[in-house]
Amino acid sequence: MLLVTKKKLVGLVSLLFLFFFCFCKKSDSTLVPNLPPSINPIDTTKTEVNKECKNLSFDYKKQQGCDGQIYPDPQSSKYILPFEKGKTVKMGLCNCSSSYHAAGRGDQYAFDFNMKEGTPLHAARGGVVHTVIENQSSNGGGSGNWLVINHGDNTFGIYLHSPKNGIYVEKGDTIKQGQVVGEVGRSGLAGYPHLHFIVVKDNPVWPYKGIPISFKNVFPPDVILKTNGEYTACGN
Questions:
Q1: pTM value?
Q2: Which residues make Cβ contacts (< 8 Å) with residue 132, sequence separation at least 6?
Q3: Which helix (H) or strand (E) holds 197?
Q4: What is the third-level CATH fold of 74-233?
Q5: 8-state DSSP, 185
Q6: How far apart are CA 11 and CA 73, in angstroms?
């Protein structure tokens, strides 16, 4: 009786060993474990983008906006993308496109950065806070909650659609370029979460006059950001 039990035990151990050997061999051939589709063990895209960012250069040729104004050379631009460095964002409507961004309208030089609600907003350029409006609790109409930064050269950066109490700075605060100044929302006529950003000249009150700008840390290095394009903010 003991002999039979030992034989069964040996057989069971052999079976387990064979199963373990096959499993290990299969694992070796796949190199990485099976992960959920949303998890990528090697972020090759980010690696390649970082490589390009180190040698970022622009093939600048003068380009006109829809009213004849010239876009500045990104290499001497005073502006960076208004989101975290290393992140990639898909654009909504951009310059001279359609709807509120159509040629001839006050927002013809505005950009819509499509980002999730609550995503931090970074100052595209430093300056002094000119206006803070953050008392709207829904997307009930108009501009919603917004922030204006005076750049000190008769231009103003306007950041629209933050949620209620979603602006982190106060009127009169001095802001550094890249500083977190608020978060993304959908207040006003947003419809969906995004940052509506525009730089205007002379007067930041509607009806204002937008001006064309470029971004010095954008990859791919487009002088004019494209509607539905995807862009990464370069930098350490």
A1: 0.77
A2: 147, 148, 167, 169, 170, 171
A3: strand 195-201
A4: Glucose Permease (Domain IIA) (2.70.70)
A5: B
A6: 76
